[in-house]
Structures are given as structure tokens and as C-alpha cells.
């Protein structure tokens, strides 16, 4: 009898032990899963941060870096005896009253490409002239596109030959060589002595973490006018805007100014810009604005200037 009680007790004890073991294993498994989830979340967060920073670097390296949001704020760098001056005061002069006519200058950077042809077709359909700040290319199709821009009455401007920030802004000598290369490239293809320049990244270029004054002075000394922009379509930011958003970005800003220089892009991957263009022109025409190509009459829009 006492033996059977003792057996029973042993049984119970071993069952309890087993339950305890199972409970312990469960607890361990749950802890592992919890740790696993936490580690996964941490890794995902780190990867997200990394992706954003890589996207910024890609934008930087391809030159698709929109610095318009960096224009505000103080930027009075000094270099020797020249000072970079922010042009926020000009903005105040440029604010439109209710009676003012709005002048809008559509400018396309980073072409020519296949999209340039489509953009030229659309501009032709609407009888609208624009400005193309081109980069250097020497294949036949590109040469024909430079020529077509000029033949169809648009303004052609320089946007550097290589468009590689790391090279152009590495020294004034590199910049000069690149400047002469794009000037000659346009002259050889079109016979036009180009009078307009757009700095990759704008004159307020903070992407390259350099003092822009030397480069600005050089362009001024060539008798060439550099144009920045005061309206950004957002078509070169990391975020991929839809064509409707591109139209909205532009329309919400052009109403503010007498002169709007609109930043757009006609590189190969700018399909949303091509899609937006007819809607944009129609919206601008509905508002009764004048759409014009840049010429010597155009109010100069510059983010920064150098003062002696
Ligand atoms: Zn560019």
C-alpha cells in the first residue's frame, strides 16, 4: 500500500517536473521570439535610414539634387574679399500684386535625352517657348536635339558638361575646363554663343559643401548670366511626385511672383515631367500667365550673388 502511494507521488512529481520543463521551454521560446522581433525591428529601422542616405547620395552623384528647400536661411559665407549674399530681398520685389502680369519661364535641366524630343513636341503643340539648360553629349541624336531646341525658338543654356559635382566643383581649373567644354559643345552643334548658365545644384549649391563664390565670379567674368529658380516642380527630389503633384507644386508657387523661373528636368527618367507638361501649360494658360523663354529682358533669379 505504502509502495503504491510512493509510486503515485513519484508520478505526480515527474508530471510536475515535466510541466515545469515545458513551461520553461515555452518561456525560452517566447523570449527568443521577442528578442528576434526586437532585433528585426532594429535592423529594419537601420536599413531604412541607410536607404534614405544612399538615395541622397545617388541624387548627389547623378546631380538630381534639388536644393530649393535649402535656399532659405543665412548663407553669408565669406571668401577673402568677396561675400556671398542671399537674394531674399529680390523675392520681396518679385512678389506679385493683384494687377501684376505673371511671367513664367519653364526651364528644363539635365537634357538632352529622348524626353527632350517629347517635351519639344508638346511645347510645339501649345506654341510655347521654354529654356533648356543642357549638359554635354556628343552623339548624333544629342547634337540634333541641341539644334532642334535652337531652331524651334527656345533658349539654350549651359548646365555644365559633365554634371558631376565631385569633378566640376573640385577646383576652379576643373570648373573652367568644364565650362569651356559645354560652351564649345553648344557652339559646335548650333552656332550659338551661349549666354546663360545654371550651376548644377544652383548658385546656392550646398550639396558639395564648398564656397561657391569663386565659381560665381568666374561665370560673371565670362559675361554669362546664371539663372537659378524660384519655383521648383519637385521632379528631381528623392520623392517621386506624380504628374498631378508636379503641376500642383508649380501652380501653387507661380501665383506668388511676377517672375517665376520654374525648375523642371528633361533627363531620360523624367517621364512624370513629360506627362505633367500638357496639364501644366493648360493650367498656366487658364491663369492667364505669360510663358516665355529666358532672354536678356528676363528678371534675373539668383539664389546668391557675390558682392566685392
Ligand atoms: Zn542638373
**Which architecture of the largest domain per CATH?**
Alpha-Beta Barrel
Write down the overall mean pLDDT.
Answer: 88
CATH class categorisation of the largest domain: Alpha Beta
Say what the CATH topology of the largest domain is. TIM Barrel
Largest sheet: 6 strands, parallel
Which structural class do the helices and strands define? alpha/beta
Give the count of helical stretches: 9
**N-to-C SSE series?**
HEEHEHEHEHHEHEEHEHEE
Rg, alpha carbons: 30 Å
- Beta-strand content bin: 5-15%
Termini separation comes to 112 Å
Number of domains: 2
Word description of this protein:
With 308 residues, this protein is of the alpha/beta class. The protein folds into 2 domains: 1-62; 72-291, Glycoside hydrolase/deacetylase (TIM Barrel), CATH 3.20.20.370. It is built from 9 helices and 11 strands. Strands 3, 4, 5, 8, 9 and 10 form a 6-stranded parallel β-sheet that branches. A 3-stranded antiparallel β-sheet has the order 1-2-11, with helices on one face. Bound molecules: zinc ion (ZN). Zinc ion (ZN) binds next to loops.
List keywords for this structure.
six-stranded parallel beta sheet; 2 domains; 11 strands; TIM Barrel; elongated; 308 residues; binds zinc ion; alpha/beta
Blueprint of the fold:
Layout lengths: L1 H61 L15 E2 L2 E5 L1 H6 L9 E7 L4 H13 L4 E4 L5 H12 L3 E4 L6 H4 L3 H19 L5 E2 L15 H9 L3 E2 L4 E2 L10 H12 L4 E7 L5 H16 L3 E2 L12 E4 L1
Parallel strand pairs: 3-4, 3-9, 3-10, 4-5, 6-7, 8-9
Antiparallel strand pairs: 1-2, 2-11
Helix pairs in contact: 3-9, 8-9
Zinc ion (ZN) binds next to loops.
